[in-house]
Amino acid sequence: MIGFLAYYPYAVAGAIVLLGLVGIAISRDLVHAVVCLSVCQSGTYVFLLAVGYQYGGIAPIFGSTVHRGTPVVDPVVQALSLTDIVVSAAITSMLLALVIQIAKRRGTVDPDELRSLEG
Amino acid sequence: MSRRARMVLLALGLAGAVVVLAVGVLGLPAFGGHRHPYRDLAVAASFRHATANAVSAVNFDQRALDTFGEETILVASVAGVAALLRPVRRERRRQVDPEMPVMDSTRLLTAVFFPVTLLIGIDVVAHGAITPGGGFQGGVVLATGLHLLYVGGRYRLLERMRPLPLFEITEAAGLVSFIAIGLAGLAVAGHLFSNVVPQGRMGQLTSAGTVGLLSCAVGMAVVSSVVILLAGFLDQALALEEEPAAGQWDGREGAAR
Amino acid sequence: MIIVIAALLTLVLIGAAVVVFTRRPAQQAVTLGGYGVLLSLLFVAVQAPDVALSQLAVGTAVVPLMVMLAVRKITTLRRSGREDR
Predict the structure, then answer these.
(1) How many angstroms separate the CA atoms of C44 and B193, rounded?
(2) Angle in degrees, CA B132, B138, A37, rounded to 5
(3) Taking the CB of the first residue and of the last residue of chain B, which one, N or C, has fewer CB atoms within 10 A?
(4) Burial of B236 (C-beta count, 10 Å sphere; 0-12/13-18/19+)
(5) Distance CA B25, CA B21 (A)
(6) Exposure of A26 by Cβ count < 10 A (0-12 exposed, 13-18 middle, 19+ buried)?
């Protein structure tokens, strides 16, 4: 079990990123593509937290039950994933606003139709 | 490029990406191992400044400048969304129908959860240094709580509860106070974002020096950013509609299409 | 604990596939919310309550709401565009 698990979390993270990419490539709707991009980015959260995990470690919030010597998981990668989530939300909102603007100007959000309009 | 060619290219790219990822991942230490040098350094630094929540210590103390950059990204994207979604000439504003069909149970749940969520949000912002949470999470919870009113069919009340000009000011004020605290550290201790407020005993509300203050500043910026973002999208979806194109404007209509 | 993490990882992977292969964006807003919940559960299991909290707020509330509103706007635009023609 442990042997199998040693690289499984990283594999899952990579698979999520690739799934997101596939979704963007096969997308027939720009909103769908934006959602797939946010799925793609969520793979990085899984990856970061997997890097920082330690068996038996607990959340790095110290208090009456968690002391200096208690094994904790890595707070640095958690802070990085927090930043990641904020940036992902910012990007998604920006892209969705762009898609709305495209729909207003071109009357379609299908990437293939948009290209044929391009001529 | 035809759809078929695109799929072939995609398959090639994916195969390449799988190889690169596999090589990279196999060079990593196995999942769940005991060697975490950054963890050890970060925990030591967090104890030096009596910050119980080591994640907040990293975000608002050790990497405060990065967090400033991240908040700037958020605020910039809010500005971008506001610019992209501002009403254009062809659109007119209509009154949003106040009587959306909403189930009574939804209404009741909203009435219960609305105040609870706001309280949780404030608590999460305020205690970011000692319990899970902090400015960012609390800010998003607060903004989400506010939008429960929309889910519960109280769009008018939501509009009254979020005076946008005020939120635009608090957004800027949050960002400005964040960098002001950092500059205060520069002035007093000689480097940006140094934790100059005296720290107390671990676990007290005010123990972590500037961490709590920076967390509140981020909370202000985030709650306003999310509210302004969602206001832009709500406005587009509910309140703005296209003018019927029956020659109300000049020939530009056709050109824009 | 190991088994819980492995199970949640698998669920998250399936969730991501479901979101990607949900072709209609309106339904995707719903599946994306569900995927956000699965991710938050995984983050709780790997001892990251801070990340779980923000994933829950952003990934299951704010982003799906924005997607839903964008879809609604685009549907209205499409409908009025069709009436014009």
Answers:
(1) 30
(2) 95
(3) N
(4) buried
(5) 6
(6) middle
Contact predicate A10/A47, CB 8 Å: yes
Is the distance from CB of B55 to CB of A78 less than 8 angstroms? yes
Neighbour count for residue C23 (Cβ, 10 Å):
13
DSSP secondary structure string for all residues of B103-153: -HHHHHHHHHHHHHHHHHHHHHHHTTTTSS--HHHHHHHHHHHHHHHHHTT
Q: Using the beta-carbon criterion (under 8 Å), do C67 and A104 form an inter-chain contact?
A: no
**Which of A16, A62, A85, A100 is the mutation pick for testing B, counting most B CBs within 10 A?**
A62
* Residue B239 phi, psi dihedral angles, 5° rounding: -100, -25
Of B89, B87, B102, B106, nearest in space to B238 by CA: B87
Structure tokens at A22: 């596939």
* Concatenated DSSP letters of B33-50: -S--HHHHHHHHHHHHTT
Residue C43 · residue A49 · CB < 8 Å: yes
CA–CA separation, B114 and C53 (whole Å)? 18
- From the list B14, B54, B74, the residue facing A60 with the nearest CB is B54
Say which residues have a Cβ less than 8 Å from residue B187's Cβ, sequence separation at least 6. none
CA A4 to chain centre: 24
Inform me whether the pLDDT recorded for B249 exceeds 70: no
Residue to test with chain A: of C8, C19, C62, most A Cβ within 10 A? C19
Which residues in chain A touch residue C59, judged by CB atoms under 8 angstroms apart? 42, 85
Dihedral Cα B211, B215, B216, B217, nearest 10 deg: 100
Residue that the structure tokens 């669920």 belong to = C11
Please report how many Cα atoms fall inside a 13 Å half-sphere around the Cα of residue B169, on the Cβ side: 4
> pLDDT (tens digit, 0 to 9) for every residue of chain C, 85 residues total?
788 999 999 999 999 999 999 989 999 999 999 999 999 999 999 999 989 999 998 998 899 999 999 999 998 888 877 666 5
Stretch (H or E) spanning B240: strand B240-242
Residues of A in contact with B232 (CB under 8 A): 97
pTM of the model: 0.88
* pLDDT of A3 above 80: no
